[in-house]
Amino acid sequence: MCRIPLRRIFAAVLCALPLAAAAAPPDTLAQRLRACTACHDDQGRQGTDAYYPRIAGKPYEYLYNQLRHFRDGRRHYPLMEGLLAHLSDEYLLTIARHFAALDVPYPPPEDNELSAEAATRARALVYEGDERRELPPCAACHDKALMGVQPAVPGLLGLPTDYIRAQLGAWRSGTRKAAAPDCMAEIARKLTPEEISVVSAWLSAQPAPAHGRPAARGGKPPMACGSVLDAEQGTAR
Amino acid sequence: MKRTLLVLSLLIGIAAVSIVWRNYRDEDAHPSPAATLSQEESIARGAYLARAGHCAGCHTARGGTPYAGGHAIPTPFGTLYAPNLTPDPETGIGAWTSDDFWRALHNGRAKDGRFLYPACPYPNYTKVTRADADALYAYLRSLPPVRQPNRPHELRFPYSTQLALAVWRALYFEPGVYEPDETRSAEWNRGAYLVNGLGHCSACHARRNALGATDSTLSGGTIPVQGWYAPSLHSKREASVAGWPREDIVALLKHGISPQASALGPMAAVVHGSTQHLSDADLRAMALYLSELPVHEDKAPEPPAVPPARLARGERVYAERCADCHGEQGEGVPGMYPPLAGNRAILLEPPVNTIRAVLNGGFPPATAGNPQPFGMPPYATLLSDEDVAAVVSYIRNAWGNRASPVNAWEVATEGRGIGVR
Fold first, then answer.
1. What H or E segment, with its residue span, contains residue B317?
2. B272 and A73: CB-CB below 8 Å?
3. In this predicted complex, what is the ipTM?
4. What is the pTM assigned to this prediction?
5. Which member of A21, A29, A94 has the closest CB to residue B328?
């Protein structure tokens, strides 16, 4: 009778199992940042819901500023604040550059139904502003293509309506802040809730170019903006 | 009747005298020693000691100017606001002398004589030597003055009164500079001085009574209001480092990670703001002292079993969400992800830290030795309370681990809704 060493085979299989199954996680920056991509998607696109915006391809200085704002209490979201609490400026800049360098396709625009009148009003605010109220157009700083300007002004396309509306609301109420002079806070306070609503809906309904990138250089901003000044003077870093 | 009244007023009189006496002990008996350091050296020494005491952790508001105060400290008695320590003459400590500063640190009294709240851990700082206090003073004086008025504390009656503080101090505050134990080495004494003095480890790692006083051991406790559990440094089941290689203890304090553990929650703040900046010699001394703390051999009561359905659900969630990094057998990846099998930090009672780690995720602190730490995602928005309860119960009872299960109610109350403070 042939005796099969069942116990030994069983033990050998048991030992081999974890080895066969587990591939060690790679020692890469992307792996280190899985804490970010669990919500923001592993390509830095919009994540689990509308409040986790796409971060891929945004200007690095803009991303760096936002990371510091969350860490230092100028922007508020408990999970972001907790994650960043004990990270250094150097690491935050590395993280910002990592996501800024990603080039992934934009999602299709939202299918927002805007009346012709609302669309006209939104377009006027985006491209012309309102001189009477000293309200500059979005395009003056965020570039004509609305894809932002390097290194500190973010693009406005490819974002969900809810996200844009929430940001303008947060600036208006003072829960989102940026470097002084905080131009966006000033602008958001001049906008009516209806204007915020139509502009947000209109922006998120515009298609973003497939590989749209922020413009390399912008024109002279119509008002003083702390984030842009800091970037020019290199004081952010 | 008359006699009762007499006895009563006598007793009150004795109590009042002893409260007054106990509040003014050990004052003015510590003149500055002859200076051995130049002004510049003294400032550098003070900057280092301020790190050891993590003074900026409370005296700097988030995103604010260092040491200008304004940081809120929530307590069960109300909210305290740390004052401005910059040398502004009106709103800071610009008008304070080194004797005034010494009295604040050593006796817990402000320049104007008021008693200070022990949220500033002067029951620990009282152990600091006069020479070190003078160096701290020199450093704070060297900071740029910032005009930022102190925000008044918001405390409930009677905690808002000086009388309540006087009674508290009479009961719980013992002024006195650290006295070396001659039977121990100089290194051990240095460690004890740092751990029990400026390091004020007992502010978190000790139990607090109903009036917020800690005992003199480091036997673990729940941090008031914040709710994190600071594990016992005397317990083999919790966070005793007896028997660890000394370099691993140093690594945890210096880099925020070590082969056995990584710093999480409030301890990550301590490593980030304080211990990573200390010299290897001081960290080794602290490690020696901590590893030689008396060990309490305490056996955990047998925890209740996990309901089988919750265990099965937890195993599924683990395979889907956690196994990639922490390994199928909870073995972790050295230097990247901590093991969960046999990891004391996830087996603590109460289980609040483990629940929060899953809900909030986190990065160990960025330090010189670990400048780009690996992070864990926050699962607060990705998993339901039931899934979090299941996976926490699972990891506390898989691979030979054994600890109490967690239910969805605990996740909702102790983790969610509390968020980051």
1. helix B308-317
2. no
3. 0.92
4. 0.91
5. A21
